[in-house]
Structures are given as structure tokens and as C-alpha cells.
Amino acid sequence: MATVPVEYDLNSLVPGEENILALSGAMKVLEEPGERYNPFFIFGPSSVGKTHLLYALAQRFTDTYPNWKVLALPAGEFLERCEQAWQSNTKVEFRQELWQLDALLLDDVHCLLNRPAPLEELYHTFNRMIADGRQLVLTSRCAPADMIVLATPLRKRFQSGLVVSIETPRGNLIRDIIEQRCEL
Asked: Which of 108, 120, 50 is nearest to 74 (CA)?
């Protein structure tokens, strides 16, 4: 169910002090999906590797747990699917599709702020998946605590698992990334 671009692989992520906590968290999530680090919330500025890490996790879930239903998608696509379901009166079917997932990975959840229908669906899906021990992975440009316009219950749920930041690469990490790209 996860459509993951080939270039997003955990082995192609270059570790550095700016992303090591996120990479370590991802490995823990893979060891114990749906357990202690649920949800796994990754935040940071654009172009620091959040999307790469999210889709790499989706790929590893798919490889490690071949019977799992894994859905990885940008929040914009989640928004479109949700609004289409609400407009076509297929809300129940949409919700059931989400509730059958073993792992839901949403990229750029900040794009859902001020969107009541998708946030309501995410809230219900979040509650159901956590209660059933299924894994959620979310990325955003901002930390949950900074999502002031987000309803408090959902913001608290975003903060309830492992929240990590990825910083803009500097110095050695930039050099290492460039070297890796040149080798590829």
C-alpha cells in the first residue's frame, strides 16, 4: 500500500549531530512498532530529511512486515482523500480504510491546520490506531507545541509519543552528504 520512491532508504540517510536523534528514534520505532514511540513525530525546517526519513520508514515497515497494510502519503493527499470522502458521503468507508492500516505515515501535517474535516478524521484515526497498537509517523515544519491553532486534544496526542527535531545540516554533515551524492 505504501508507494515509496526508491531513493528514500534508511541506508542512504547520512547521520550527523543534526539528525542523529531522529535516526535513532526511527530505529527504535522499527524495533517496537506501535509501542513506546507512538506516535513518532519528526519536525524541522524544509529540506532537512524529514520526508526522506518518513518514506524510508514506510519502506522498511513494508520490507520487515510484508503482511502489514502501510500507507505513506503527503498531508495534501490525505486532505484531498478526506474532502472527497466527505463530499461523496463515503466518510465511513474512508475511515474504515484508515482504521485497517498497521502503519500510517503522514508527511507535512502542518498543511492540515485550519482544515476541520481532515483534522477530525486524523483525530479519530489517531485514537483508534494508538488504542490498537498500530504505528503513526508524522512530519511537520513545526513542533506540536507550536501548532497553536490546532485543537488541544490533537496537539497533546501529537506530543504523546516521541517528538524529535532535525536541524539544518552544517559543516561536516553537509560535506558527508555531498560526498555520498557524488559517490551515487
From this structure: 108
pLDDT in tens, 80-114: 999 999 899 998 999 999 999 999 999 999 999 98
Residues 6+ away with beta carbon under 8 Å from 44: 50, 141, 165, 166, 167, 168
Rounded Cα distance, 109 and 45, in Å: 13
Residues 70, 72: Cα–Cα separation, whole Å: 7
pTM assigned to the model: 0.88
Measuring CA to CA, how many Å separate 149 from each of 106, 108, 116? 19, 15, 11
* Per-residue confidence band for 177, with pLDDT thresholds at 50, 70 and 90: low
Tell me the pLDDT tens digit for each residue of 26-60: 999 999 999 989 999 999 998 888 998 999 999 99
Q: Which of 12, 85, 100 is nearest to 52 (CA)?
A: 12
Q: Which of 65, 62, 157, 58 is closest to 109 using CA atoms? A: 157
Q: How far apart are CA 100 and CA 8, in angstroms?
A: 25
Residues sharing a CB contact under 8 Å with residue 43, sequence separation 6 or more, in sequence order: 50, 139, 140, 141, 142, 143, 144, 163, 164, 165, 166
Count of C-beta atoms within a 10 Å radius of residue 68:
16
